[in-house]
Amino acid sequence: MLEKLWPFGRSRVRKAVEEALEKAFQDVGEVLEPLSELSEHEDHYLLRVEVPGLGPENLEVRLEGDQLVIEGEKREEKRTKHLSEIIYGRVYRAYLLPKDAKKEGITARLAKGVLEVKIPREKHPPEPPVRIPVEEA
């Protein structure tokens, strides 16, 4: 029935309603978690993080123990707006480094709104699984 009333289909309507509700109830100053992907290569990991609208001057990448932290802030410019769908605020995400990641030699590069963090890997022989005996009670 809903498809007949709305030509874009039920899933698009549901998505639009969910996005509108999220925006309506969003707290001011909320922390935004950027979307990301981590790919594994033979000698490194590549973490790609979407940070549109942020430049190197308002973006920080740092190590805190075994975590790689990405933090920044997307600030709203003061001007008269007729439409505002862009979300502003603090961007923060912490990633637990894989066990074989090297903390030395990590590099970060920002291009076209995507931050790429290259994390070198250490070569370790694979550890054999450890069997744990199960006792009967």
UniProtKB/TrEMBL annotation:
UniProt keyword Kinase present: no
InterPro entries in alphabetical order: A-crystallin/Hsp20_dom, HSP20-like_chaperone, HSP21-like
Keyword Zinc-finger: no
One example of a Gene Ontology biological process annotation: response to heat
Domain SHSP: 26-137
Alphabetical UniProt keywords: Stress response
Family: Belongs to the small heat shock protein (HSP20) family.
Protein name: Molecular chaperone (Small heat shock protein)
Source species: Thermus thermophilus JL-18
